[in-house]
Amino acid sequence: MSHEKHQQLIQVLHECMAACNHCFDACLQEENVKMMAECIRLDRECADICNFLEQALARNTPFAAALASVCATVCEACGNECQKHDHDHCQECAKACFACAEACRKFAA
Amino acid sequence: MSHEKHQQLIQVLHECMAACNHCFDACLQEENVKMMAECIRLDRECADICNFLEQALARNTPFAAALASVCATVCEACGNECQKHDHDHCQECAKACFACAEACRKFAA
Amino acid sequence: MSHEKHQQLIQVLHECMAACNHCFDACLQEENVKMMAECIRLDRECADICNFLEQALARNTPFAAALASVCATVCEACGNECQKHDHDHCQECAKACFACAEACRKFAA
Amino acid sequence: MSHEKHQQLIQVLHECMAACNHCFDACLQEENVKMMAECIRLDRECADICNFLEQALARNTPFAAALASVCATVCEACGNECQKHDHDHCQECAKACFACAEACRKFAA
């Protein structure tokens, strides 16, 4: 079944979506928001595409590989930005993004 | 933290989204698709609002209660339709929908 | 036809979604991002629910009124925040939000 | 400004999203739903990615080209399925899909 076949990737996407949204929320509450502007932007980009792909995989989309390939690119970019910042939420988000980027790349291959 | 505060509801929403999307996909492959038309329609409605609310809670939305209240209505309607059909995917989807409706109602209260 | 029946509201939602996303993007590039944090947060909330409702109306959702009612609340809140700021993108966004809130409220009634 | 820069593509995406959702709704009400199953599936796929890209362009996403390229693939597939069916909603949807596929391809290039 589609949702079982893709279950592991769906879980990784879900965790990345949650980490990015938490980082988005936390960045908006930081003292120095200006420094976090690019992080805020990419957190939203990454959360949105992970959220989209979660659902697309769960409905057995015929476009899984192409979507996963774009998602890997977005996760990679978000992880690269997040890892520049020392906040725990950024470091955790970077970890989730890199894990998701790798899972998406493997899946798309 | 928002994503921890809401973690249990996010999980229930995620399971309901997955069950609805699986049911959507499976209904489209049934012999008698016509009989499943309302189920297909409501599976999409329910999957979409659960998917939306998952992400909204993860980013600590200020509109959590109002969104959960609408989500409960949609889950209830989808569960009522799904439970009319004997297919395993419909019965499982109904169960996930009713669990999610109840969790959303409690949350919104 | 559903998409014609709802065509006017879909258009208003689309314009509000575009204004909120433009404001989100522009706020992240402002000198004083910290002052715009709540605006950035609400721009995303409002863009997301307008985008969701656009599509839900286009597919003839059975939950149009309930969704429009929540959408009105979100648009109102975003408009209230945006109108506090002098930037053109905030003032234009506030206008789009209030127009959309009113259209959603009328529709839901 | 981003939303002006991308305004034409956003409009084409919006029209394709509306046509796909109308076709989805209408297919579910056809006498012979089984024959429309693949059309229903692809209508949802196409509406969802167009809706996603509309919003991503409006917020000035850094991933516009990669997303437009995937979107072109989905629109093409949906158009190919829709044009097989004589219903007006399918023929109109096919036209919107092919127009959107072409606009996305040009944009991505």
Automatic annotation (TrEMBL), chains A, B, C, D:
InterPro entries: Csp_YhjQ, YHJQ-like. This is Ferredoxin. PANTHER family: CYTOPLASMIC PROTEIN, CYTOPLASMIC PROTEIN-RELATED.
